[in-house]
Amino acid sequence: MRGSLRSSALRAVALASGITLLGGASAHAAVDQKVTASKAVAQSCHARNLNGAAGTQSVTTTAPDTGLIRARLSGGGDWDLGVFDANSGRFVAGSASFGSNELAEGFVKGGQKLVVQACRFRGDATSADLSVGFVKIAEKSTGKVQLVRVDTTRKDKDALQSLGLDLTEKASKNSVDVVLHDQADVKTLRDAGFTYTVQVADMEAQSKADRDKDAKFAASNPKTQLPSGSNQYRHLADYDLEMKQLAMRYPGLVKELTLRYKTVEGRTVNGIEITQNPQAADGKPIFLQMGVHHAREWPSSEHAIEFAYDLLTNYGTSARTTDLVNTTRTIVVPIVNEDGFNISREAPHAGLSASFGVFDYEMKRKNCRVSANTPAQYTTGTCADNPAGRLRGTDPNRNYGGIWGGGGASTNWSDDTYRGDGPFSEPEVLNVRDLQSTRAITNLITNHTFSDLVLRVPGVADFGAPLEESQYKALGARMAAHNGYANLPGYGLYDTTGGAEDWTFWTAGSLSFTFEIGTIGFHPPYNNGVVDEYLGRGQTAGAGKGGNREAYYEMLAATRDQSLHSVIAGSAPSGSELKISKTVTTETSPVWNNDYGTDIGPIQTFQDTLEYSMKTDGSTFEWNVNPSTRPVVAGRDGRPATGAPQADIAVANPAGQPAENTGDQLSGAHEEFSFDVQGPPAVDNGRMTVHIDWGNPDTDWDVYVYNQAGELVTQSASFGDTTEDATLFDPPPGRYTAVIVNYDQIDGQPYDDWGNGRVDFESPRPRTETGIKEAWRMTCRRPDGKATTPLDVIVDRGGRFDASAACATTTGRR
Ligand SMILES: [Zn+2]
C-alpha cells in the first residue's frame, strides 16, 4: 500500500506524547554461555520444546519484567533457536537463519518461565555462543484501548498535545486520532473540553478477532490447497527453516542464497534459487520474486514462498512447471525487511497494552534505521521498544536510487513513507541492489498489500513511459487477466519516487512489477488474504481466473521469452568463464527539501556497477541478459499526432459551497461538472488534464474524474499547494464528469473556494529515441589460460549478439 502523505505534518505532534508512554527500557543479560551438541539434527528448533533431544541444549530463564526477550546465538555451522513458555510449551520466539547468526525476539510477561532452546541443525560446529537479554516495556492500560477522533475545530491542537495523551499519526486539519488507554485518559480529554467520536471501540479486540478467525481456520483446515498446505501466517523463523528444508529435500533444484548486507538489528537475509542444476553458473534468464518490503504486509511473503513450493512440488508431474523450471531460474526472497516483519508479526494480542500505544507494533511499515535527522530523544532503545515507536525507520520502498528524492516520498524521518537519508541508504535496499547488480535478473515482482494492482514504471507521470511500454504493459495485462487487478503505471495512483521498479528497470533493465495484493487490509484473515488470493478463489478479483498463482506462472513464461530480454550467444571452449560489466551513473530526482515540493534542490548522482558472469558447459553458450543500453537513456515511448488537440474547456465553479468531506467522494458532499472529450478524426488528444486552483496552500480541494460508465479514470488529491491536476493519457472520447471535493478548510478563515477550472488537452508526445547505445564490456577466461580479446557487446531487448570472438585467442601480444 502506498501511504498517504496527508498526515506527515502532524507526525511530530504524535511523537511528543509518545515518549512518556514507554518509559526507559533497561536491558538485562540473563544468560551468556556456550551451548554444545555432539551431533547435528536437521529439525525445527522453534516448533516445540524438544526437551533435551539429540542435537539440542536448553537453558531455562525467567523474564524479570513484561517486555521483550532477545536471544542471540553466534558461531560456526548452522545453529537455530527456539524460545517457549516453560509451562505451556507455547512458542514465544524463534530464529532459523541459514548459518549461525540468530536473533530470536518475542514478547514475554514479567515472571514468565522460559525455555531457550539452541539446536545444531547441520554443520561441524559442536558449540555456539548463546546470550539472552530482556527489555522492559512499561504497561499502562487498565481497560479497553480505544481509538477516537478528537475534534479540534474549537480548541487547538497545542491544548490537546499538552494533555499528555497518546496522539496517533492520523490527523486532519480539524481532528487528531488519539489512543485512549483507560478511563483516566477519557476523563482527561473530557475535562479539557474536547469532543470526539469513537473510531474503534476496542483496538486489541479487532486485531485479535482476525487472528482468532485464523486460529479457527487453521484448526478446521489442517492442510489447505496452497502448494505447501500452509494454513496460517508464518513467523520469520518458519521462512528460513522451510527454505533450508526445501534445499535439503530438492538438492537438484534448490540452492540457498544469503544476501550481502545484514539488517540494522544484525539479521541475515535469505532466499533460495530454483532451477534444474541450481549450482551451475549457467546463463538462464532469472525471475526475482520478493515479499515484505513493508513489515505489516504479511501476505506478500506468503505468496512469494508459496510460488517456490508450487514450482518444486509440481516439478516432474506438471509438464509446464518442469519445462519452466528447467529453462529459467527463480530467486525467491520472501522477507526483504526481516527486522520490521518480526516486530509486526510477533505483536502481542493480550496483556501488553503497549502493543497499541505509540508503538502499534502490528502496524509497523518501515525498517529499523535511526535516521541521521532524528531528534536525540527518539534515538534510544531497541527497534521494538524505542520512544518513536513504529515511526522509527526508513520506508524501503522509497529508498531505491532511481528517481529517488522526489514527490510521493516523505522528507520527514518519522513519516511512514520516509525516503531515507540518501539513495540506497538502507541495508534491505542495498541487498536488492547488490543482487540485481550481480545476477542478470530479467524479470521481477515485488509483492505488497493491498489495493488489487499490478504496477509498472514510471512512478512519476512526467518521467514518461519507456520505449518498451507496449511489451511491458501487455505483460502486466497478461498477469492481471489472472489476478483480476488493475494494470497501471505506478503513477496511476499518484506519483511516488524511490520505489523498487524505478531503479531495477530504468538502470538494470529488468521488467519489474509491484503487486498490491487484495482489498481488505495489510494482513487480513489468512484464508482470504493468502489462500484465496493465491489460488484465485472466494471473494477475490482473481476468482475463477487462476489468481496470483497463474499470474506468477505468466511471469515465469515471460522470463523464458527471449523477445523480452537480450541474448549473448556463441561458441567457446567448454568451461570458459564469461563476464559482462558496465559502470554507469544514475540520477535521482531533483531532491525535494520538504514534503510539499515548494523547495526543490538539485539532482544527485551515484554510480552503479553491473557485473554478471557465467561458465560455459559445452562448445556453445547462450546467455540471457538485459539490454546493454539502460532504458533510462534510450528514449521514451510516444506516438505521432494525427491532428490538433481539442480546444481547452473553461469551467465555471457551480453555485454554492460543498461542505467538507474527508470520506467517500461520491456519497459525501461534493460539486461536479461534466464535459465532452472528442476523438479522431476531428482531434487527437494525447493528454487530458482537469485543473482547478484556489488561494491558500492550507486549503485542500481534491479532483476525481469518472467516465460515462461511472468508472474512476484519474484523480488528483495532493496536499499543501493551491492546484490539483488530474491527468489522463490518450483519453477515449466520451462524456466525463469531474467530482470536486472540499477536503479541508482553514480554521477561522474566510471560506476559500476553488476559483478557476479548466480541462486542458495536449498533443501526444512523439516517441523519442535518443540513439544512445551503451555496451556491455565482455571478457572471457578460457580453461587453457590463453589470452582473449575483450569485446564491446551492444544488444537491444529482443536482440541476439554473436560473441564467439570473446573467447577466441588473440593474435600476437597485446
Ligand atoms: Zn507495501
Structure description:
This protein is of the alpha+beta class and 814 residues long. The protein has 4 domains: 79 residues, 2-Layer Sandwich (Alpha-Beta Plaits), CATH 3.30.70; 110 residues, Sandwich (Jelly Rolls), CATH 2.60.120; 303 residues, Aminopeptidase (3-Layer(aba) Sandwich), CATH 3.40.630.10; 118 residues, Jelly Rolls (Sandwich), CATH 2.60.120.380. Helices cover 19% and strands 30% of the residues. Strands 13-14-16-15-17-20-18-19 form an 8-stranded mixed sheet. The protein has a 4-stranded antiparallel sheet with strand order 1-8-3-6, with no helix packed on it. The protein has a 4-stranded antiparallel sheet with strand order 2-7-4-5, with helices on one face. The protein is globular and about 85 Å long. The relative contact order is 0.09. The N terminus is likely disordered. Bound molecules: zinc ion (ZN). The site of zinc ion has 6 residues, from loops.
Write the layout of secondary structure elements.
Elements: H1 11-22, E1 27-36, E2 56-62, E3 67-74, E4 78-85, E5 91-95, E6 102-108, E7 113-122, E8 127-136, E9 146-151, H2 157-161, E10 166-172, E11 175-180, H3 183-191, E12 196-200, H4 203-220, H5 236-249, E13 254-258, E14 270-274, E15 286-290, H6 298-314, H7 319-327, E16 329-333, H8 338-345, H9 427-438, E17 441-449, E18 453-456, H10 469-483, E19 486-489, H11 501-504, E20 511-517, H12 526-535, H13 547-560, E21 566-571, E22 577-592, E23 600-615, E24 620-625, H14 631-634, E25 635-636, E26 649-651, E27 671-677, E28 687-693, E29 700-706, E30 712-716, E31 723-729, E32 734-744, E33 757-762, E34 768-769, E35 776-781, E36 791-793, E37 800-802
Parallel strand pairs: 15-16, 15-17, 17-20, 18-19, 21-37
Antiparallel strand pairs: 1-8, 2-7, 3-6, 3-8, 4-5, 4-7, 9-11, 9-12, 10-11, 13-14, 14-16, 18-20, 21-24, 22-23, 22-35, 25-34, 26-33, 27-32, 28-31, 28-33, 29-30, 29-32, 35-36
Helix pairs in contact: 6-12, 10-13, 12-13
The chain binds zinc ion.
